[in-house]
Amino acid sequence: MTEALLSALSAVADPASGKPLSQSGRVDGIDVKEGVATLILKPGEEGEDIAALRGAIDAVLTALPEIDRTRVIIETTLARGASKAQPAESQPLTAPARFVIAVASGKGGVGKSTVAANLAGACAKMGLKTGLMDADIYGPSAPRIFGLTDVPGLKKEKGGIEPLEAHGVKIISMGFLVGERDPVVWRAPMVTGAIRQFLGEVNWGDLDVLIIDMPPGTGDVQLAVAQGAPISGTVIVSTPQNLALDDAKKAAALFDRTAIPILGVLENMSFFICPNCGETSEIFGRGGVRAEADLIGAPFLGEIPLHPELREASDAGRLVVSGEGPVAKAFERAADAMLHQAAAAQRPAPEIVFSD
Ligand SMILES: Nc1ncnc2c1ncn2[C@@H]1O[C@H](COP(=O)(O)OP(=O)(O)OP(=O)(O)O)[C@@H](O)[C@H]1O
Ligand SMILES: [Mg+2]
User: Fold this and answer.
1) Which ligand number lies closest to the CA of residue 112?
2) Which end of the chain is more exposed for a tag (fewer CB within 10 A), N or C?
3) 239 lines ligand 1 (CB under 6 A)
4) pLDDT higher for 298 or 186?
C-alpha cells in the first residue's frame, strides 16, 4: 500500500526542490487506516504554499480506490522554542495526574483504543477526575469513540491548551489538531514533541487518572514516548491468539527496559457473548493471556468479552461502560484492578528493620 501511495505522490512536485515528492526526501511517514491516508512531511521552505501542496497531495491520493481522505502533517523546526511555555526536550515533565497509565499493545487492532476509552470511562464513573490522551498520531481514535468528530478544534488559552470533554473524561487527541481538511504544521521531533506538549501544556487540571492510548507497536516511537513521559505504569492489552500474545511480550519487554512498571495484562475479545441469547462461546480458547501474564510475572487484570455492542458504541460515540451490561461490568472490574495495581506500584517498598 505504501508503495502505491508513494508512486501516486511522484505526480506531485516538491515546491522546495522541484523533484517529485516521493523522491524529494521530504516524506517522513506514510500510513493508511480506515481509508484515511496520513502523510508526514519534513519542513519545507519558509513561505511555502502548504494549502496548495496539500490540495495536490489530496487530489492524487484520493484518486486511489482505497483512499477516501488524506491528512497531511508538515513538520517544522521553526516553532521550536518560540514559546516559553514549551518545555525544553531535556526538562523532566511533572505528571499531570496522580496516576498516568499507558495502555499499550505489541500488535495493532487488539482493541487498545476501545479499552483505553472504557477504562477512562470506568474511572470517571467511579468519581475520579479522569483524562484520556490519544497518543496515536497515525490513527487517532478518541474523536470517534467519544463522539467528538465534529468539534471546532482545540483552543489555546493563555494558560495552555484546553482539553475537550465527553462522558466525564477530559480528552486530547491528535485528531483534534490534525484536521482532515487543513494541513497542520508541527514542530519536530514530532511524535515525542507532541506527546510532551500534550502532557505539559494541556490544562488537565487536577486529575486523579490520565490514561494514554499508545500507538501500536514496540518501535522507537513507543520507546520515545515511554522514556519521555512521567508514566506511572502500563496496561498491556492482548487478544487470546498466540500471535497477539507474542507481541504482548515484546510490549512488556519494552516497558521493562524503561523501568516503567507493568500494572498488568488485560485480555480483550476473550470470549463471545451472543447479543441475542447471551450465551458465551470461547472462540480463541481462554486463559492464554492469564497464563502469559503469570509467565512474565505481571498481574492479570481481567477479560473483556467480544461483543458487537462495543464496536457499535464506538462508532456512535457512546461508551459501553456508561451502561450496566456485562461488558460494562467487565471494564469496571478491570479498571478497579488497574487502579489497585497503580496504587501498589506507587507505595514505597516496606522498610525492613533488623533487630540486633
Ligand atoms: N471486545 C471487543 N468486542 C467487539 N469489538 C471490539 C472489541 N474491542 C475492540 N473492538 C473493535 O475492534 C476494532 C479495533 O479496536 P481498536 O481501534 O480499539 O483497536 P486498537 O488496538 O486501538 O487498534 P490500533 O492498533 O489500530 O490503534 C474496533 O472496530 C473496535 O470497535
Ligand atoms: Mg488505537
Assistant:
1) 1
2) C
3) no
4) 298
